[in-house]
Amino acid sequence: MEDHISVTSLIIVLVAAFLTPILLKRFRLHFLPVVVAEIIVGLIIGQSGFNLIEPNEWLDILSTLGFIFLMFLSGLEIDFSIFKSGKRKKMLNGRPEPHRFGVAVIIFIFILVLSYLISLALSLAGLVGNAFFMTLVISTISLGIVVPTLKESELMRSTIGQIILLVAVIADLVTMILLAVFVSFYEEEGNMWLLLLLFVAGVGLYFLGKFFKNQTFFETLSTGTVQIGMRAVFTLIMILVGLSESLGAENILGAFLAGVLVSLLSPNKEMVQQLDSFGYGFLIPIFFVMIGVELDIWGLFSNPSVVLLIPLLFLGLLLSKLIPVMVLKKWYDWRTVAGSGFLLTSTLSLVIAAAKIGERIGVIDGEMASSLILLAIIACIFTPVLFKQFFPIAENAEEKKRLKIIGANQITMPLTKEFAEEGYEVYLYHARPNHSGELPGSPDFTVEKLESYAIEELQSHGVFDSEVLVISTNDDELNTNIALEAADSEIENIITKVEAPTNQAMLKEKGINVFSTIFSSRAMMKAMIASPYIADIFATREEGLMEVPLTNQEFHGMKLRDFPFFGDTIIVRIYRGNESIIPHGDTELQLEDRLIVTGNHENISELEYLLE
């Protein structure tokens, strides 16, 4: 009978987890994070609702494993490449952009200090018991909410997006470590020095993992039924979780550390997707549904002090983030600053972790733990919505590269549409009356009519204010003259169509890229006859060649075999000045190298971001 009850409860929980995202999609509840919806569904089927679930050993084990795996994925989500300082560019207002890491550290220090002051005030008012513990609760930020929201808003690569992400990453790392230290101090049998053994073991396992990762035989065991990489990850999690518990620390610290180590080892994207699929497809939904099942909402609201405490804590969460982000007012407008503060207020997994740990060690009671979980749910529902309402996303999204094309014809018009779809800010200029206004069926760009192609006319329309300029009229001399004029402007890349060999040579000497329709057609036809598969690389968008410049000092002198990320990309050639280099494992990268790569467009974009 007991087995029957346990299986029935497990089935109900799994069905609830399965139906939750379907219902969210069906009713278009896009503002609600899936994990929060799972907790709400747990409330409905648990003791606050229909009380359909009978707690048992099966659910306890799977829920605990879900919690451990959630902490592992939280550590895995940390991308340490964002700590590297890239080039500081000028913003649209002409001012230099903020130093991302420095500003993020300052903001988090303010968050920590202000969280302590708010916690101290609540403690003096008799609403909370331990001010240090409550400081950790208030200062946490949920990477699981911040990362998807930034991605959805196309802000991940913008300066403000990187600052928000860095603050969240620092908060995740620091609060997790401080929570472990707090537990070690608070528990009588705890010994903070034993935590050092855990980190020493972590460092040792990191170097061991790095050694095995570079072994060729390891790659041969990564496919088919062996999947040695996945086995290594789960072994690492269990070793560090077991070691954490043996040393008197929390098991989630070991899981989080395992995630951090795997992230540092730069796993391939396919493995990360498999881990995400397993975690968020099975174990983690069980954990979040069970959080709701065990939460007694009606019992909470029967206590007047809790009714007062939850709004005060929510206000404390808001103030602890909105006031520190005022540092950003030096560079951004009020709406951007306020939106950033609201997004940083979102908190979930670490608050739930802290609530469960605090209840276990006796620093808070069950009622307070439930209050903190409810607080996390409220914060995750409202703060992403407030972020979207306040943050001027269109103005702060990734800056698009400007591409201006002179001459509307059968070649340039399809190219204009393709580059507009790939995220370029595209302008197409023409001096023919039969192509005026917006191009029918292409809302991504507008064809602008010129009176003529005279230099003065082009200047008055700001044609030379661009990163890339393509000149493709049907007049060779006109193209040559415009290109020579454009060479005096600060344009990164000037491309012009010229058929005359003498003009081609002159323009190339001035650093202008030249193409000839006759030569290009002949070369492509020759390639198709002699090597049709090689010709496909040039003709297919999905497998085309792209140039990625190296401007990040971090990778100067690094051998290709030691490079942390290539994903599904292959380096075909490296151009260094006028030298063409065939790459191999021992090839050392140098600043200003131009890497010619082919592969998945998403991975090439990541590579571009890493090397810039």
Automatic annotation (TrEMBL):
<dbReference type="InterPro" id="IPR038770">
    <property type="entry name" value="Na+/solute_symporter_sf"/>
</dbReference>
<keyword id="KW-0406">Ion transport</keyword>
<feature type="transmembrane region" description="Helical">
    <location>
        <begin position="31"/>
        <end position="49"/>
    </location>
</feature>
<dbReference type="InterPro" id="IPR003148">
    <property type="entry name" value="RCK_N"/>
</dbReference>
<feature type="transmembrane region" description="Helical">
    <location>
        <begin position="131"/>
        <end position="151"/>
    </location>
</feature>
<feature type="transmembrane region" description="Helical">
    <location>
        <begin position="278"/>
        <end position="301"/>
    </location>
</feature>
<feature type="transmembrane region" description="Helical">
    <location>
        <begin position="369"/>
        <end position="387"/>
    </location>
</feature>
<dbReference type="Pfam" id="PF02080">
    <property type="entry name" value="TrkA_C"/>
</dbReference>
<dbReference type="Pfam" id="PF02254">
    <property type="entry name" value="TrkA_N"/>
</dbReference>
<dbReference type="Pfam" id="PF00999">
    <property type="entry name" value="Na_H_Exchanger"/>
</dbReference>
<dbReference type="InterPro" id="IPR006037">
    <property type="entry name" value="RCK_C"/>
</dbReference>
<feature type="transmembrane region" description="Helical">
    <location>
        <begin position="61"/>
        <end position="80"/>
    </location>
</feature>
<keyword id="KW-0813">Transport</keyword>
<feature type="transmembrane region" description="Helical">
    <location>
        <begin position="337"/>
        <end position="357"/>
    </location>
</feature>
<dbReference type="InterPro" id="IPR036291">
    <property type="entry name" value="NAD(P)-bd_dom_sf"/>
</dbReference>
<dbReference type="InterPro" id="IPR036721">
    <property type="entry name" value="RCK_C_sf"/>
</dbReference>
<comment type="similarity">
    <text>Belongs to the monovalent cation:proton antiporter 2 (CPA2) transporter (TC 2.A.37) family.</text>
</comment>
<protein>
    <submittedName>
        <fullName>Transporter, CPA2 family</fullName>
    </submittedName>
</protein>
<feature type="transmembrane region" description="Helical">
    <location>
        <begin position="247"/>
        <end position="266"/>
    </location>
</feature>
<keyword id="KW-0472">Membrane</keyword>
<feature type="transmembrane region" description="Helical">
    <location>
        <begin position="163"/>
        <end position="186"/>
    </location>
</feature>
<keyword id="KW-0812">Transmembrane</keyword>
<dbReference type="InterPro" id="IPR006153">
    <property type="entry name" value="Cation/H_exchanger_TM"/>
</dbReference>
<feature type="transmembrane region" description="Helical">
    <location>
        <begin position="307"/>
        <end position="328"/>
    </location>
</feature>
<feature type="transmembrane region" description="Helical">
    <location>
        <begin position="101"/>
        <end position="125"/>
    </location>
</feature>
<feature type="domain" description="RCK C-terminal">
    <location>
        <begin position="532"/>
        <end position="612"/>
    </location>
</feature>
<feature type="transmembrane region" description="Helical">
    <location>
        <begin position="6"/>
        <end position="24"/>
    </location>
</feature>
<keyword id="KW-0050">Antiport</keyword>
<feature type="transmembrane region" description="Helical">
    <location>
        <begin position="192"/>
        <end position="209"/>
    </location>
</feature>
<keyword id="KW-1133">Transmembrane helix</keyword>
